[in-house]
Each structure stands twice: as structure tokens, then as C-alpha cells.
């Protein structure tokens, strides 16, 4: 059985919120990566922060798209509780996509580390 | 009502009644506990409101001397803390505890003693906070207790400790109620109430409760760390010794922002229950509203840094939080439009609640729009810490919480009292509140933009905001009159109101199938529900339940309730609930004793009280079981269902799982603190600190893994009814666990002997101490399971206690291994 189908069968409520879990993972990752790049440039490098953010965002957006499409397909063929869960899951995927796109939007225009450490001065 | 039905109601009344007189303190029924939460919360609301009146008097014009700076700081701290921790959260929990089972068609909540314990912790927490007046040690660092202001250097004495310990004690109740509510929603819905038929109120409460489980632990952890720093000199927030004051802000707002939605979502649940009734049509866009609830719950955890836009965080990071603050508007907007759509497409009746809902729309939407403004980083830099933010947060909180609650109070008054509210008085009350509110807070947008800082006891006349402040003060007193009128209105209606007819608003939800006021057992029987609007779909449901038709329409001497499957609501167990008991009160007293003893620097006494908490907690758990209970019971129509102790979806299993989620959130917050301090420290470990020995890490890993394997085998032994092997394996597991604790203790005694020396040592010691305490707890519960086995409560056919011990054990092993990897290996990676 494919992983997504297995998740739907064994943990249907978790499957319903899967896209938001991807959003949380993505959000934590980009926040962590920028903090690490700015404070510990020896690890990732300051200039690499934006690249990591774009990479993480594209990966998360791809995963969410896949989840959304799979949920939409299930919504079309299922009935009752399964249909409701699939419909909610698809809508949450749409919301997660918008939220991730909003995070990605300013990356080309904003230098990553401006402002960092001003509180320590 | 037939003779049989009358006898059934009388028998159920005997089984479910509270003890009379002062012994009612031992009551555990959800209706009683819910009302206690609501009434106590409202009393705290009045106290905090009184403080607000003093604050407004002081700010009425520049140079006023009603309060000096110190007293102003104290009152502003208590006003915010009381409103947020002792009014808002407990009152919404009270609403949830009281109404949820009634809306779900259940008889009670699944852990009545936990509800009672939570209530007492809340009350004692509030009393501890207010006891600070007796010692002239009233907290004065603001409701957010920012470090270093609240640290030992700038707030010596006990002011901050009263806040940290009192509020943490009250927070225990929030977490315990959250566990209770999640499990109630998952496994105690009416038969056939599949998840897509659940009342939207239950979705809102589910989201709120899960948010509490993830949102409150960071603050509980932060408070414990700050208390360790203040009391024992540990270092977490002192930058001179490897700490960072911003760590507190992160932990606080990781709680603090979700908190806004924790407060708002249940209030929105109240609106979503009332609006379809007023419009006499089902809610528009059920699935969209569920999406909005889940979306809000998640995204609200990505907003915390928007309270920290001015702290020097990288610009790109700020943009992430600004983006999330914008994104959360989408689900909020969906809800607003769903409510408007429902009213628009229905025929709204002009009942008292409708006016308050209109007030909610006006005030909350205005607060939401200023929220979008402060979510913009450049605007926030200008408005930060000004009265503009005070205006915004009051528009959101009073609009988003108080007005829906007042609407709910009028709506459910007939259910509580059997009397109808007065249309004319409720209108007068509304306009006093609405005009008073806007007069108070609308001018603050302007005073804030003109430069009036918040939390400062006076201001210069040169600022030119005297007149606007006077208007705010007049408005504040008008609002206070409105609250007084509301109380009077409610009391008059309760005493002299018109007798309420059955289902007075022609609502569709199950609470209106109850007698008014409702009996302790709620429903004489539990009927299957086949739609989202049970009383509209099946108008004869009320009569059928009153007659005792359907499931469990019988009285067998014990408090029984149906347990259903989490997804489709299929009946699958009979939950036998506990009777009234003093143990929750004893356990809460012991818990309060721990906090008070720490406050009094009596650490030996605190340790003794910890043992008392364990003893009373276990005694309470012990007396909830029944070793002679049948394994299965007839639930009606000759259908037999197993009793909960032998069922996979037993409430206890779900309850422990939810507790572990909250605990994992606390552990995650501690890991966040570890890595945050590492990120900010120039060296890790710092000069003079040593790495923790790998031999200790090896022993820990060995002890934990072997213990887990042994306990896994114990579980297999129980399934095979090999009780001697079960005992032996549990003892072996405890032996292995003792090895792990021994190795951690050796590390704490030797390389980490001086945790107060540096942030590295402090946070490493906290991590190991956290893991060691958890392993000790797992050993205690495993020992408890052995005792239950000996006394016949635990067996192959009643394996619940063993399942709980095993779940806890494996979880503890996992966090123990992670803590060990971080504390022992990570510094080697980055050294």
C-alpha cells in the first residue's frame, strides 16, 4: 500500500491535517535556517540563507501540492466520513500553499541577515 | 412521562447527584465543575475590571496622582494577568466543560475527577497570585514578565515568584481541562455522530484544547526556568553568563500568540452555535468552517515573533512571521463570511443574543483590521508599545471573547435557570457596553499614534492627549456600568424572568433536549444521531430520550456513559465514570502546597508535598477502577458492549496520549531553549566547562533500550496471562531504568556540579533532570501497575493499566534518548 493511502487508513485525522504539518515543518525549517545562517555563518554561510529558504519552500510546496491533488481525487470518489476528511484535507492543502507562497514572496527582495543582533548591541 | 420513565429519572438522579451541603466540594459532575469555572472566572473578571478602573482614573489626565508608578505597575500587571489567565481561559473552559457533553449527547466528561482537580488548581493558583497583596509583593513586571526586568537583579524579593508560581498552578487546570475535552470529543459523542456530523462547537473546542496542549507547555517551561534562575541561580536569561533574555520572549510568545486564538476559537464556537438558531437554518459552509478552524489553529503557532518585531531579529525572519500573520486572515475571513452568509440566507430573529453578535462583528472586525496593520513590520515599528496596540488587543479580546460570551449567556440562560431573559434590559445593557467600549478604546488608536506609550503611569501634557484620555476614562466607567447592568439583568431574569418553554429558541442542538435546568446525568438515555441538526432532523428525539429509549436507558447503580468510535461514532464501549470524591481536592491541595513551599523557600516541605501529590493522585486513580465490574454490559436492545478497561479506545489511553503530547511540547521547548542558547553563545561548552562523558551516555542508552524491551515483553506476558513473567519483566525494566538514572545523576554530580556557572551547564542539567524525572515517573507507574495486578484490577482481560504503563515507558525512553544525544553528543559535534 502507498504511504499516503496507509496514512489515510491508519491515522485518518492526521492525514486530514497532513498539509498543515508540512507547513509547520517548512516554517520551522526556514526560520531555523535563517537564524543559523545569520548567527553561525560558518555552518551554512550568510549568503546561502535565501537559497536554503527557496529550496525548502519549493520542496514543501511540491509535497503540499501532491497531498492536495491526492485529497481532491479521494474527495471525488469517496462518500460519508472519508469524503469529508478528504475535502477538508484538500482545502487545508490550499491554505498551506498560500501560506508558504507568502513566506517565499519577499525572499528575492530582502537581504537575509539585516537587523540581526541589533538587540545585542 | 410514563411511570417507567419517571422511575428511571429518579434512579439516575440518585446515582448522579452531588453530595449535599458543604460536602458538595467533593462533586465531580461536569455541570457543577463547569459552573464553578464560569462563576469563579467572572469574579476574577470583576476584580481585574476594578483594577482597570483605577488605571483609567490615573490616566484620565496628565500628571494625575491616583496611583504612583509602583502601584500602577502592580495593577497593570495584575489586570493583564488576571484577564488572560484567571478569566479568559478558565471561563471558556467552563463553557466547554459545561456545554460540550450536552451538545455531544453525552452524560458527562470522561475524567470527572480530572475536571475537579483542574478547577481546584485554578482556584488555588488565583489565590496564590492574589496572596501577594498580603505580603506587599504584588508582581509588577507586566503580564508578560519580560526578562531581565523580572529576573533576580531587577526584581528582587518575591514579586515575580508569586506570578510565576501562581500562574503555573492555574495553567495546570488549562492543560487538564484540555486533555479532558479532547478525549470527550473523540470518544464520547452520541451514537452515529460521525465526525462530519459533530456540532461545529465541538470542532472549535477540539482545536482550542489541542492548541492548549501545544501552546501552554512553552510558558510552563519558561516559568520553571525563570524560577530556577531566580531561586537557584541557574542561567537561562542572563546574557553575562551564557543566557539570553530574548529566550524568555520566545517561550512566552510561543504561548502568548496561540493564546489569543485559544481564547477566540471557543467564543467563535459559541457564535457558530447561536447564529444558525437565530437564522433558523443550518450553518453555511460546514466543511469550510472546519477548514478555517484547523487552519487558524495551525497558523496561529507561526505568529509569535510578530510580538517581537522590534527585538533585532533578521529582516527575512520577520517577513516569515508577517506572512503568517497575513495568512491567518484567510481562515478568519472564512468564518466571518460563513456567519454573515448564515444570517443573510436565514430569517434572523431579534432575540437578545443577536444584538451582542452584531456588536461582536463591529468590534472584532475592527480589531482584526488593526491586527493586519500591526502585522506589517514597518507599521509595527512605529506603533509598538504604544496605546495603539492597547486599542487593538482590546478590540480583539473584548470583541472576540466578551461579546460572544455575553451573547451565550443570554442564549443559554433558559437552560441554566428555566427563565427567559428580558428583551428591554438586555438592550439597555448592550448599548451601555457597546458605547462604553468604543468610547474607551477608539481614542486609544489616536493617542497611540500620537506617541502615548503603554504601561507608563503618566504622560506629558505636551503630548496633547489629555482630552482623548479623559474620553477613554469616561467610556471605561460607562462600560463598567454596562457590566453592572448585565449582572443585574441576569439576576433579575433568573429570579423573576418568564418561565421558559421547551427549546425556547427552536434550536437544533442536543442541549435543548434537556430538562431546564438540566439534571446531572443530562440524558436519561443516549439516542443515535443521524444528522448535523439533531433536533431539526428528528423532532421526536427529545421525547424519546426523556422516555429512556435508545442506549443505556437503565440505571444499574454506577455512572455509565456510552463510548463511541472517534471517526464514525459507532458505539463501542461502556464508560463507567467515577462518583463524587475528595481525592481531586486533596491532590490539588498537595499540588498547591508544592508551589507555596517553593515560594516560602521551604524546599524540604516542597519535596514532601511532591510525594503527597503522587500519593493522592495515585489514590484517586486507584479508586476509579472496579475489579468486580462486568467485562461487558447490556446497553439496550439486547446489545452487549465491553466496559472501557478492556477496549482499545479506552478514554484512559487517549487521555495519557494527550498528556504526552503536552509533555512532548514541553520537551520540545526545552530543546528549543538548548539550541537557542547554543546559537547565541560564542563557544559551546564555554571556557572552563567540560563535555559530558560518553560512558555515561552509553549506560543511559543501554538502560533505556533494555528497559523498553523488557517492558514490551512484559506486555506480551500479560496478553498470554503469564502474570509471574509480567512481574519479573517489569521489575527488570525498572532495574535497567535505574541504571539510566544513575548515569544521568553521575553526570549531574560531576561535570555539571555547578549548573549556575553558565548557560551551557544550566540547560544541560535541565535537560538531563527533565529526562531523569520522567524515567522516575515511568518507574512509579510501572510499580503501580504491579500493585494493580496483585489486587486484581489488572489482568489479561482488563489490561488498561499495563497499556498505560507501557505507553508512558516507551515515550520516556524516546525523550531520554533524545535528551542524551543532545546533551552528550551535540557539544562534541560543534566543539
Question: Which helices and strands appear, and what pairs or packs with what?
Answer:
The complex is a heterodimer of chains A (121) and B (831).
Chain A lengths: L2 H8 L1 H5 L1 H22 L1 H4 L4 H29 L2 H25 L17
Chain B lengths: L2 H14 L13 H29 L10 H36 L7 H20 L27 H29 L12 H33 L12 H35 L6 H14 L15 H13 L1 H17 L6 H24 L1 H7 L3 H31 L5 H27 L16 H31 L37 H4 L3 H6 L12 E6 L6 E7 L5 H17 L3 H20 L9 E3 L5 E3 L8 H30 L13 H26 L3 H27 L9 H32 L9 H31 L1
Antiparallel strand pairs in B: 1-2, 3-4
Helix pairs in contact in B: 2-3, 2-4, 2-15, 3-5, 3-7, 4-5, 4-18, 5-6, 5-18, 5-20, 6-7, 6-8, 6-20, 7-10, 7-13, 8-10, 11-13, 11-14, 13-14, 14-15, 18-19, 20-23, 20-24, 21-22, 21-24, 22-23, 23-24
* Quaternary structure of the protein: heterodimer
Helical/strand content category of chain A: mainly alpha
Which descriptor suits the 3D outline of chain B? Answer: globular
Strand content of chain B: under 5%
Sheet with the most strands: spatial strand order of chain B: 1-2
Order of helices and strands of chain B: HHHHHHHHHHHHHHHHHEEHHEEHHHHH
Number of strands of chain B: 4
- The helix/strand series of chain A, from N terminus to C terminus, equals HHHHHH
Q: State the end-to-end CA separation of chain A.
A: 56 Å
Major sheet summary line of chain A:
none
Please, what is the CATH homologous superfamily of the domain at 681-830 in chain B? Cytochrome c oxidase, subunit III, four-helix bundle
Task: Tell me the Rg of chain A in angstroms.
Answer: 18 Å
What does the overall shape of chain A look like?
elongated
Please write the CATH class name of the domain at 681-830 in chain B.
Mainly Alpha
Tally of domains of chain A = 1
CATH topology of the domain at 681-830 in chain B: Four Helix Bundle (Hemerythrin (Met), subunit A)
Amino acid at each position: 500500500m502507498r504511504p499516503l493511502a496507509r496514512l489515510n487508513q491508519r491515522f485518518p485525522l492526521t492525514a486530514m491535517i497532513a498539509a498543515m504539518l508540512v507547513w509547520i515543518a517548512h516554517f520551522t525549517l526556514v526560520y531555523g535556517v535563517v537564524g543559523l545562517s545569520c548567527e553561525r555563518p560558518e555552518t551554512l554561510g550568510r549568503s546561502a540563507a535565501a537559497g536554503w529558504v527557496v529550496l525548502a519552500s519549493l520542496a514543501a510546496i511540491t509535497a503540499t501540492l501532491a497531498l492536495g491533488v491526492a485529497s481532491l481525487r479521494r474527495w471525488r470518489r469517496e462518500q460519508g466520513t472519508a469524503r469529508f476528511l478528504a475535502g477538508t484535507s484538500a482545502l487545508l492543502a490550499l491554505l498551506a500553499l498560500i501560506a508558504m507562497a507568502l513566506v517565499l514572496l519577499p525572499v528575492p527582495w530582502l537581504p537575509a541577515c539585516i537587523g540581526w543582533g541589533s538587540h545585542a548591541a | 412521562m410514563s411511570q417507567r420513565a419517571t422511575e428511571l429519572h429518579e434512579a439516575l438522579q440518585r446515582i448522579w447527584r452531588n453530595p449535599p451541603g458543604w460536602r458538595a466540594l467533593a462533586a465531580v459532575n461536569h455541570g457543577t465543575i463547569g459552573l464553578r469555572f464560569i462563576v469563579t472566572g467572572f469574579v476574577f473578571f470583576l476584580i481585574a475590571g476594578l483594577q482597570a478602573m483605577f488605571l483609567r482614573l490615573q490616566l484620565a489626565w496628565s500628571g494625575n496622582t491616583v496611583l504612583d508608578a509602583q502601584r500602577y505597575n502592580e495593577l497593570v500587571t495584575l489586570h493583564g494577568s488576571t484577564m488572560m489567565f484567571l478569566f479568559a481561559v478558565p471561563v471558556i473552559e467552563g463553557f466547554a466543560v459545561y456545554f460540550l457533553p450536552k451538545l455531544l449527547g453525552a452524560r458527562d466528561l470522561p475524567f470527572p475527577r480530572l475536571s475537579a482537580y483542574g478547577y481546584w488548581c485554578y482556584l488555588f493558583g488565583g489565590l496564590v497570585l492574589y496572596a501577594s497583596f498580603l505580603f506587599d509583593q504584588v508582581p509588577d513586571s507586566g503580564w508578560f514578565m519580560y526578562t531581565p526586568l523580572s529576573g533576580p537583579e531587577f526584581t528582587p524579593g518575591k514579586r515575580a515568584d508569586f506570578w510565576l508560581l501562581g500562574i503555573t498552578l492555574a495553567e495546570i487546570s488549562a492543560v487538564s481541562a484540555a486533555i479532558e475535552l479532547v478525549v470527550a470529543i473523540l470518544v464520547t459523542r452520541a451514537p452515529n455522530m460521525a465526525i462530519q456530523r459533530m456540532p461545529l462547537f465541538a470542532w472549535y473546542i477540539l482545536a482550542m484544547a489541542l492548541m492548549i496542549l501545544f501552546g501552554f507547555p512553552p510558558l510552563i517551561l519558561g516559568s520553571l526556568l525563570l524560577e530556577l534562575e531566580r531561586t537557584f541561580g541557574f542561567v537561562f536569561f542572563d546574557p553575562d553568563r551564557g543566557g539570553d533574555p530574548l529566550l524568555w520572549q520566545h517561550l512566552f510568545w510561543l504561548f502568548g500568540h496561540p493564546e489569543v486564538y485559544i481564547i477566540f476559537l471557543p467564543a467563535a464556537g459559541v457564535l457558530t452555535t447561536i447564529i444558525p438558531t437565530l437564522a433558523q437554518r443550518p450553518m453555511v459552509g460546514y466543511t469550510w468552517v472546519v477548514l478555517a478552524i484547523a487552519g487558524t489553529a495551525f497558523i496561529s503557532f507561526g505568529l509569535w515573533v510578530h510580538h517581537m518585531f522590534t527585538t533585532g531579529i533578521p529582516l527575512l525572519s520577520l517577513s516569515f512571521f508577517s506572512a503568517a500573520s497575513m495568512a491567518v486572515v484567510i481562515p478568519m475571513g472564512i468564518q466571518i463570511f460563513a456567519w454573515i452568509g448564515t444570517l443573510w440566507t436565514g430569517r434572523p430573529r431579534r432575540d437578545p443574543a443577536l444584538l451582542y453578535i452584531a456588536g461582536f462583528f463591529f468590534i472584532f472586525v475592527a480589531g482584526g483590521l488593526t491586527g493586519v496593520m500591526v502585522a506589517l513590520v514597518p507599521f509595527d515599528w512605529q506603533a509598538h508599545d504604544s496605546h495603539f496596540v492597547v486599542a487593538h488587543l482590546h478590540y480583539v479580546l473584548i470583541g472576540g471573547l466578551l461579546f460572544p460570551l455575553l451573547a451565550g449567556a443570554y442564549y443559554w440562560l433558559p437552560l441554566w435557570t428555566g427563565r427567559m431573559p428580558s428583551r428591554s434590559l438586555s438592550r439597555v445593557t448592550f448599548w451601555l457596553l457597546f458605547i462604553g467600549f468604543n468610547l474607551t478604546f477608539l481614542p486609544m488608536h489616536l493617542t497611540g499614534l500620537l506617541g502615548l506609550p503603554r504601561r507608563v503611569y503618566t504622560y506629558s501634557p505636551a503630548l496633547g492627549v489629555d482630552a482623548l484620555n479623559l474620553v477613554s476614562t469616561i467610556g471605561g466607567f460607562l462600560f463598567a456600568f454596562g457590566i453592572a447592568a448585565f449582572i443585574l439583568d441576569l439576576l433579575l431574569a433568573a429570579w423573576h424572568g418568564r418561565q421558559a418553554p421547551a427549546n425556547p429558541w427552536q434550536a437544533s442542538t442536543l442541549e435543548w433536549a434537556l430538562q431546564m435546568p438540566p439534571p446531572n446525568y443530562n440524558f436519561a438515555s443516549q439516542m443515535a444521531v443521524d444528522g448535523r441538526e439533531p433536533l431539526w432532523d428528528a423532532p421526536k428525539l427529545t421525547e424519546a430520550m426523556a422516555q429512556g429509549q435508545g442506549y443505556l436507558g437503565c440505571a444499574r447503580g454506577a455512572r455509565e456513559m456510552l463510548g463511541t468510535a472517534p471517526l464514525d461514532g459507532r458505539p463501542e464501549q461502556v464508560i463507567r465514570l467515577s462518583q463524587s470524591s475528595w481525592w481531586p481536592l486533596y491532590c490539588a491541595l498537595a499540588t498547591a502546597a508544592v508551589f507555596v513551599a517553593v515560594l516560602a523557600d521551604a524546599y524540604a516541605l516542597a519535596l514532601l508535598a511532591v510525594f503527597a501529590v503522587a500519593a493522592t493522585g495515585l489514590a484517586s486513580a486507584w479508586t476509579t477502577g472496579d475489579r468486580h465490574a462486568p467485562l461487558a454490559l447490556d446497553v439496550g436492545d439486547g446489545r452487549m458492549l465491553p466496559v472501557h478497561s478492556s477496549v482499545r479506545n479506552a478514554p484512559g489511553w487517549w487521555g495519557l496520549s494527550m498528556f504526552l503530547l503536552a509533555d512532548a511540547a514541553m520537551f520540545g521547548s526545552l530543546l528549543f531553549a538548548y539550541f537557542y542558547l547554543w546559537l547565541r553563545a560564542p563557544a559551546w561548552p564555554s571556557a572552563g566547562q567540560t563535555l559530558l562523558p560518553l560512558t555515561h551516555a552509553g549506560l543511559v542508552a543501554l538502560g533505556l533500550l533494555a528497559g523498553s524491551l523488557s517492558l514490551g515483553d512484559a506486555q506480551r506476558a500479560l496478553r498470554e496471562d503469564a502474570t509471574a513473567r509480567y512481574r519479573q519483566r517489569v521489575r527488570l525494566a525498572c532495574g535497567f531504568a535505574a541504571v539510566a538514572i544513575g548515569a544521568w545523576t553521575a553526570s549531574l554530580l560531576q561535570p555539571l556540579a555547578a549548573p549556575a556557572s553558565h548557560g551551557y551547564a544550566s540547560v544541560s542539567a535541565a535537560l538531563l533532570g527533565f529526562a531523569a524525572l520522567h524515567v522516575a515517573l515511568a518507574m512509579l507507574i510501572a510499580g503501580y501497575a504491579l500493585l494493580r495486578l496483585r489486587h486484581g484490577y489488572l489482568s489479561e482481560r482488563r489490561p488498561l493499566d499495563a497499556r498505560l504503563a507501557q505507553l508512558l515507558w516507551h515515550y520516556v525512553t524516546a525523550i531520554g534518548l533524545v535528551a542524551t544525544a543532545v546533551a552528550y553528543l551535540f557539544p562534541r559535534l560543534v566543539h
